[in-house]
């Protein structure tokens, strides 16, 4: 017989002076009463052996709940499965899932990438995951996340017009899964085949001034800008040397040889992965300094030359921030739709091509990655004479614009 007990009987049952008393409900379910406690047992035979499955204590586990667990155990037995082993396996799986949530694995992956990616890339990636992915997927086990769940997160990003961010986050989610697969913590990547269903990222170039008359106005505004000496110098040098903003603001005096008019940015500070930098695959970048750059740097060295950083912020020992030059441009009336600090590279590239300089020379001076790494190392150390002439002609051309010239100079090499 099944279900012989009632709630009232279970509640009022006592040991009646015995050390242990057992009251059967039927089907193997038994209420075991000891002094001060009542426990549910399920007794069964498996593989010829008598076994006991502890369901829990009363009243935490009610009569109804105990019967439900008994019925589940009987179902497992009908499938030739041991209820005790099934529960143990389930517990291990639950612990594994708890240790392998998306957030836990993603943080392990980020830590693993600290030797491969730049610190700034790690910071931006973590911020994006925290803003977009963790709130929806962070607490879910990797094995429970499917493509529709990932796509829902990505569509939410797309709905805000952040198409490039959606593509980058899909790539990061896929990288997290590939890392998990390599460690045996996942079997497949639910983000792997979603790139084709995302909206195409609209082409969006960085804002840059490429018309000579507009550039002339900007150069005059830069000369008239009143700010901290390091900021003014960085702003004046930006169009002259057209380095990436990070390569410019992190400059140290040991890199700059004012006597020989040469600035050598070490490969460790150039664009590239940490792995490539450690392997010496990112060469030093030589910048022949024109006369105008020397005239900016010499007085600055009188102020900051006794310290390491060339463009030191008002906080000693720290360079000017990522946004310092952009903020100065905003102050001068150039919003992000007209000009940004990185735009000086586009300005120089466009106008130097119009001046007739060979694309290869311009690309070398921009330090764009070449397909052949051996050729890149050779070329960046070679053709320095041509690059020196180009940099001086470029600086002279900028001076002519400030003085009123309105045409692109012809290259007279």
Automatic annotation (TrEMBL):
PROSITE patterns: CB, TYR_RECOMBINASE. Residues 205-391 form the Tyr recombinase domain. PANTHER family: PROPHAGE INTEGRASE, PROPHAGE INTEGRASE INTS-RELATED. Pfam families: Arm-DNA-bind_3 (PF13356), Phage_int_M (PF22022), Phage_integrase (PF00589). Residues 100-181 form the Core-binding (CB) domain. GO terms for biological process: DNA integration; DNA recombination. It comes from Tamilnaduibacter salinus. This is Integrase. Residues 1-21 are annotated as: Disordered. Keywords: DNA integration, DNA recombination, DNA-binding. One of its GO terms (molecular function) is DNA binding. Belongs to the 'phage' integrase family. InterPro entries: CB, DNA_brk_join_enz, Integrase-like_cat_sf, Integrase_catalytic, Integrase_DNA-bd_sf, Integrase_DNA_bind_dom, Integrase_recombinase_N, Phage_int_M.
């Amino acid at each position: 017989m099944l279900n012989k007990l009632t709630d009232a009987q279970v509640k009022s049952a006592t040991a009646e002076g015995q050390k242990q008393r057992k009251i059967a409900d039927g089907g193997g379910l038994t209420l075991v009463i000891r002094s001060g406690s009542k426990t549910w047992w399920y007794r069964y035979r498996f593989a010829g052996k008598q076994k006991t499955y502890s369901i829990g204590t009363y009243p935490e586990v009610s009569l109804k709940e105990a019967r439900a667990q008994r019925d589940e155990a009987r179902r497992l037995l009908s499938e030739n499965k041991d209820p005790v082993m099934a529960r143990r396996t389930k517990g291990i799986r639950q612990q594994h899932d708890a240790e392998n949530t998306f957030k836990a694995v993603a943080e392990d992956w980020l830590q693993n990438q600290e030797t491969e990616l730049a610190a700034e890339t790690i910071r931006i990636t973590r911020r994006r995951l925290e803003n977009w992915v963790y709130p929806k997927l962070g607490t879910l086990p990797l094995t429970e996340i499917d493509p529709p769940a990932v796509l829902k997160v990505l569509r939410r990003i797309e709905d805000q017009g952040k198409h490039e961010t959606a593509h980058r986050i899909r790539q990061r989610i896929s990288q997290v899964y590939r890392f998990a697969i390599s460690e045996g913590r996942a079997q497949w990547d639910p983000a792997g085949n979603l790139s084709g269903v995302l909206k195409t990222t609209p082409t969006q170039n960085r804002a840059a001034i490429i018309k000579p008359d507009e550039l002339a106005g900007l150069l005059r505004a830069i000369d008239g800008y009143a700010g901290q000496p390091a900021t003014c110098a960085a702003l004046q040098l930006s169009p002259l040397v057209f380095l990436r903003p990070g390569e410019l603001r992190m400059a140290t005096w040991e890199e700059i040889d004012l006597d020989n008019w040469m600035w050598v940015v070490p490969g460790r500070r150039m664009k590239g992965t940490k792995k490539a930098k450690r392997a010496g695959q990112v060469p030093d970048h030589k910048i022949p300094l024109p006369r105008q750059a020397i005239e900016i740097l010499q007085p600055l060295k009188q102020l900051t030359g006794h310290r390491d950083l060339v463009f030191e912020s008002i906080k000693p020992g720290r360079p000017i921030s990522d946004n310092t030059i952009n903020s100065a441009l905003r102050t001068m009336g150039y919003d992000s739709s007209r000009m940004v600090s990185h735009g000086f590279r586009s300005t120089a590239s466009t106008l130097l091509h119009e001046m007739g300089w060979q694309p290869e020379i311009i690309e070398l001076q921009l330090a764009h990655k070449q397909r052949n790494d051996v050729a890149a190392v050779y070329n960046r150390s070679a053709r320095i004479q041509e690059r020196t002439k180009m940099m001086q002609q470029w600086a002279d051309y900028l001076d002519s614009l400030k003085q009123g010239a309105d045409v692109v100079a012809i290259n007279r090499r």
